[in-house]
Write a structure and sequence with these properties.
Length: about 250
């Protein structure tokens, strides 16, 4: 009986092995399915990444365009500012030359003071659509481009009326002092230079205004006031050309 039992056991054992043989095929299928899922997940991740990169690139392009626009506006404003500064420098030199010529003329041949300019556009208001810079440049243009010195006087006066608190107010008073000096209106020129000296302590025109004021006071026979103005100039702005010229003028008084 035992051999039969052993044989039966062997047969059963062999059949068990035969039944277990298909297991590797099932595991391979499961592994393949897992790989496919992972590939699908990777593909989805790549698509999301590509979409995100495209969106970021689009935002970057928009930012670059905005930066370019801001840079263009900044460059344009810098160019306009430089043009304004250049015109101011040219205006300064032009009027300095004119005043020097006026001072160098013999007293008998100097033009007598007139008030004709007070009737030329004195009551004409600056258009409300002109900006502060444009209004100032308009007055400057009468000198630099048109050489219309008399007409520039009421234009600067109108500018000060319309923009009394302008950043160019001290400049406008200074140029009025220069223009009125050319017109031989010493009293009017003196008042405008006094405004620069007394009301605009931080103006870059103040040293020159003090020099012009001292010269005018001396020419009007007000020697004591002239000396005080010159001394104030020398003490407050000792290293300036204006102080040097004031020292020379004092030595001649």
């Amino acid at each position: 009986m035992k051999p039969k039992i052993i044989l039966a056991a062997m047969i059963l054992s062999g059949s068990t092995q035969l039944w277990a043989a298909p297991a590797p095929v099932s595991e391979a299928a499961s592994s393949q399915s897992s790989i496919e899922k992972r590939l699908v997940a990777l593909e989805n991740m790549m698509k999301s990444r590509n979409l995100l990169q495209a969106e970021l690139q689009q935002q970057l392009n928009i930012l670059q365009d905005e930066v370019s626009q801001v840079r263009g506006i900044t460059e344009e404003q810098s160019y306009k500012l430089e043009k304004v500064l250049q015109r101011q420098r040219e205006l300064y030199q032009e009027i300095e030359n004119r005043v020097s010529q006026a001072y160098s003329q013999p007293a008998a041949t100097q033009t007598q003071p007139t008030n004709t300019y007070t009737d030329v556009g004195a009551s004409q208001a600056i258009s409300s659509d002109l900006s502060e810079n444009e209004a100032y440049e308009r007055a400057v243009a009468l000198i630099m481009k048109d050489k219309r010195y008399e007409q520039a006087i009421p234009e600067f006066q109108a500018f000060l009326t319309t923009y009394p608190n302008s950043v160019y107010a001290s400049n406008a008073h200074y140029w009025l002092g220069q223009l009125l000096t050319i017109q031989n209106d010493q009293a009017g020129a003196t008042e405008h230079f006094k405004v620069v000296v007394n009301e605009y302590p931080n103006s870059n025109k103040r040293p020159d205004a003090m020099l012009k004021l001292g010269n005018l006071l001396a020419d009007q026979g007000l020697g004591e006031q002239a000396l005080k103005t010159f001394n104030d100039l020398i003490n407050q702005y000792p290293s300036t050309t204006a102080a040097k010229l004031a020292t020379e003028r004092m030595s001649q008084m």
